[in-house]
Design goal:
With 367 residues, the protein is an alpha+beta fold. The protein contains 8 helices and 18 strands. The chain has helices at residues 85-92, 137-160, 170-184, 260-263, 283-287, 290-306, 323-339, 347-354, and strands at residues 8-15, 31-34, 52-61, 97-98, 101-102, 106-108, 111-115, 119-123, 194-195, 197-204, 213-220, 224-229, 234-238, 243-245, 248-249, 252-253, 265-270, 276-280. The strands form 5 sheets. The protein has a 6-stranded antiparallel beta sheet with strand order 2-3-1-18-12-13. β7 (111-115) and β8 form a beta hairpin. The two termini are 12 Å apart.
Length: 367
């Protein structure tokens, strides 16, 4: 069976006048979850003035732990006390860096996820690069997501500091991220890889009062952004897959002809408070049909509202107080059940049969 990766991010749209700092409960274990992914301390000082934000949560699963990043992105432990003190200092810091900045997001196998209050993204690295010399898809997926988030953050901060009504341009941000990743992984620090990319940037209309939340969704490849409206029990938007051929998605990186400017698709989605935004690798929609994803999320929100455990912070209505973490966890569990059942019917199996391929069960859970 072809490889499958299962990061799932969920965000519930909220209206608020102040933004709370992100909390992170991430680990490097095979399964991990949390509220938001880590950001440098200085990033918390550059908050935009948007009246909207996401309540967030993420859940990850991979059959193997992520490969360590190579130098210079992660300094190896110092081998001698005679090394310069600056080297000892870097060797104790196990966080990866590029261009002097901490690399945003976290790695899940060969995938990368980033979860913030205004931007969520999931990049699906192509694991086959692990068998090639200088191959490291996990590095590529993480760097593109890191640079993408930085570009969006800088532009949003500049826009909120002036009176212009400029719109975000996430495709341009992704193009710059792609170019910066190419530069960072070229000689003398040459590393190869490819990755899909999908992200959802929360913004708002500047020409309406009260302000209206608008989601800028960008996709290249077969990961998926899905927007649910729980009050109406419906899916109001989802991205479409982009493939060269079956099971070969469009992707950014080494030897790929695809670029954001040429191939990325961007849509604007008008949101309402309490809408749920999902960013998923192909592993979730390959194992669960759309109606199953919708029902799973609705059931999780209902369970969260009615069950006093686990403990939450304050209100639980609509998934408040940590409910989006529970939603993400339950969705990954459901996808994993199908992926590990050799006799289950799945969307991936259905598409494979349509292509004339003999296959049973869900898509294999590995990364």
């Amino acid at each position: 069976m072809p490889p499958f990766k299962a990061p799932t991010l969920s965000g519930r749209l909220r209206l608020g006048t102040c933004l709370r700092p992100g909390r992170c409960v991430a680990t490097q274990a095979i399964t991990s979850d949390g509220i938001t992914t880590p950001v440098p301390d200085e990033a918390l000082l550059q908050k935009t003035k948007s009246p909207f934000y996401f309540d967030t949560g993420y859940a990850l699963y991979a059959k193997r732990s992520p490969r360590p990043f190579p130098p210079p992105f992660l300094s190896p432990p110092s081998g001698s006390f005679s090394d310069p003190l600056s080297t000892h200092d870097r060797s104790r810091d196990r966080r990866p860096y590029v261009n002097g900045e901490m690399i945003r997001g976290i790695t899940n196998g060969d995938d990368a996820v980033l979860v913030g209050e205004n931007f969520i993204g999931a990049n699906d690295g192509v694991g086959a690069w692990a068998t090639r010399p200088k191959g490291h898809a996990g590095l590529w997926s993480r760097l593109i997501l890191h640079f993408w988030a930085l570009e969006a953050e800088r532009d949003a901060y500049m826009s909120s500091s002036n009176t212009s009504n400029s719109e975000p341009d996430p495709v341009r941000y992704l193009q710059k991220a792609y170019e910066q990743t190419l530069s960072a992984t070229s000689k003398p620090t040459e590393w190869h890889g490819t990755t899909t990319a999908c992200g959802a940037l929360l913004h708002h209309s500047n020409n309406k009062f009260p302000a209206e939340p608008v989601l800028y969704v960008t996709n290249l490849g077969d990961s998926q952004i899905m927007v649910l409206r729980p009050k109406d029990q419906e899916v109001i938007y989802k991205t479409s897959e982009q493939w060269h051929w079956f099971d070969c998605p469009r992707q950014l990186g080494t030897n790929s002809p695809d670029t954001p400017n040429t191939n990325a698709v961007m849509d604007k989605v008008t949101l309402q408070e309490n809408d749920v935004v999902l960013a998923m690798s192909d592993g979730v929609p390959d194992n669960l049909w759309e109606h199953e994803i919708l029902q799973n999320v609705l059931d999780s929100i209902r369970t969260w509202e009615q069950n006093p455990k686990p403990e939450s912070s304050g209100d639980r209505v609509g998934g408040t107080g940590g409910g989006m973490l529970f939603v993400a966890q339950e969705l990954v569990k459901a996808a994993r059940v199908i992926a590990e059942d050799p006799f289950a019917e799945s969307p991936f199996m259905e598409r494979a049969v349509e292509e004339g391929l003999a296959m049973e069960g869900g898509e294999d859970l590995q990364s």
